[in-house]
Amino acid sequence: MSSVLFVCTGNICRSPFAAGLFRARCSELPDSWLVDSAGIHARPGLAPEPHAIALASEFGVDLSASRSRSFERADFTRYDNLVAMDRGHLDFLQAVRPREFDGHIALLTDAHGNALEVPDPYGRPVRAYRTAARLIATGIAALLEDLGAETGDRWLRR
């Protein structure tokens, strides 16, 4: 089984949406996936932001049962792939990466392989959430396309 953990700051906007959208689209992949999200500064047990829940529903994703959790060192043993929502998260994951972790750490990319940084919409107007949702949807679509291709997880090696 393959696994992916989406990582952002508070785990109440971007990463739960990315995990929910990926999970909803996993039926397009040949094998089953373990999918989750976490935040590097999350307060455990919080529900997603109302704007995130509303926008996710527009993509057919129900985030209402999602609850925030903190990124843990043990996540390096639970997940093969860690996907950061921005370069700050990427830098953090690379800095705390144990030597024995042989998985992949990356940002989402678009269909052309360009890295996507998803700005944090927390506390901003709904248009910021729409921008984040659009970037995440673009990245998830490219990720699924790459995972379905013969080259497998090449997106993670960029």
What features would you describe in this structure?
- The protein has helices spanning 14-25, 50-58, 75-78, 87-96, 126-148; strands at 2-8, 33-39, 81-84, 104-109, 115-116.
- The chain is 37% helix and 16% strand.
- It has one domain (2-157): Rossmann fold.
- 40% of the residues are buried.
- The chain is globular.
- It starts with a strand and ends in a 10-residue tail after the last helix.
- It is α/β, with parallel strands linked by helices and 158 residues long.
- It has a five-stranded mixed beta sheet with strand order 2-1-3-4-5, sandwiched between helices.
What is the topological layout?
Layout: E1 2-8, H1 14-25, E2 33-39, H2 50-58, H3 75-78, E3 81-84, H4 87-96, E4 104-109, E5 115-116, H5 126-148
What are the key terms here?
158 residues; alpha/beta; Rossmann fold; five-stranded mixed β-sheet; disordered C terminus
**What share of the residues does DSSP label as strand, in percent?**
15-25%
Portion of residues within helices: 25-40%
- Which descriptor suits the 3D outline? globular
Give the strand order, joined by hyphens, for the main sheet: 2-1-3-4-5
Q: Can you tell me the CATH topology?
A: Rossmann fold
Global structural class: alpha/beta
Q: What is the succession of H and E elements? A: EHEHHEHEEH
Low-pLDDT stretches: 150-158
Number of strands: 5
CATH C-level: Alpha Beta
Total of helices: 5
For the biggest sheet, the summary is:
5 strands, mixed
CATH architecture: 3-Layer(aba) Sandwich
Structural domain count: 1
- Overall radius of gyration: 14 Å
How confident overall, as mean pLDDT?
Answer: 90
